[in-house]
Predict the structure.
Amino acid sequence: MQAEPQSFDRVLSSMCTEPHPVARDAAERFLATNPGDPGTYPAVAALEDDAIAMLGEIADLDEPAGYVASGGTEANIQAVRIARERCEADTPNVVMPESGHFSFRKAADVLGVELRIVPTDDDYRVDLDAVRACVDEETALVIGVAGTTEYGRVDPIPELGSIAREVDAMFHVDAAWGGFVLPFTDYEWNFAHAPVDTMAIDPHKMGQAAVPAGGLLVRSAGLLDELAVSTPYLESTSQATLTGTRSGAGVASAVAAMEELWPAGYRSQYVRSRNNAEWLADALEKRGYEVVDPALPLVAADVPRSTFDALRARGWRISRTGSGELRIVCMPHVSREMLASFIGDLDRLEVRASVPIAGDD
Ligand code: 0PR
């Protein structure tokens, strides 16, 4: 094989990043282990307990329970599955803001539950009145997002938790991306702030672990029983994960990254990312673009399609929101120099665009 992995030089829209060197090293050392078979691979199984303990600390969960999943998608599917199992209604429904990640659509599809989508307000956060109007006695789960994929918004988590409790539904927080930056903000988003039952929080995003390392946290270990199937021929008796064979590399790298970076390293990374996002938002605003104020280190701006395409043609790995805005995620590998070079390219394009084309008028 001759191919080389891509460099991160121009990657501006990914929610993954270069793993921290200690995470890279740990991933390599644990490549051939399978936490799905703890009877055979006890060392990596013990590391998974460490990972959950640390994720619990980050999300302020008193008695941490959960497992290292393949990513936010699996964690979200499993959260919906737990809620469906706990719900006694004949036709359970799940209520989610329109800003929710598309993994919940997969969950609803696979699990056969009705997905009810509620609108967001002018600031891209879920409209609480719409949630109140949408829930009923058949609601199995209410979902809140703490760090939305498109605009980096944090839903009003305590209020959503109260609404869920009022109808006896479970409450899931998707902090797959936001979980490693929110501890350094004033947002209320975690198990101590609200009656959260389950949470997605991914080391392979802002946590700087190697892919695949997602996290599912549950308020009490008993919730995992809803997922467990028996495993007759393994030394362990049951398995709660969705996938069978799993990545020991993901587990080990998550532990290595968190041991290295929690909390001081993640805090300084958050500050760096936030400053970069503010700098970029400012630079775009000064050039006359309409910018969605960055709440977390993610910037969306109304840049014309032709400009967007020209930037992509120059190699910038950028993406667009559902409504078409340019979307840039200030992940750890995104430096100020990269952003300055991006803005430099944008300026050159705009100069060209404003030069009258020969023959025009
Ligand atoms: N929840 C939220 C809030 C997310 O943003 C994402 C993924 C998920 C759940 C699902 O997580 P997994 O992809 O780990 O299953 N958000 C990004 C997205 O779908 C993921 C991503 C990552 C996209 C890297 C591109 C990329 O290069 O857009």
User: Anything to note?
Assistant: Residues 21-261 form a domain with the Aspartate Aminotransferase; domain 2 fold (CATH 3.40.640.10).
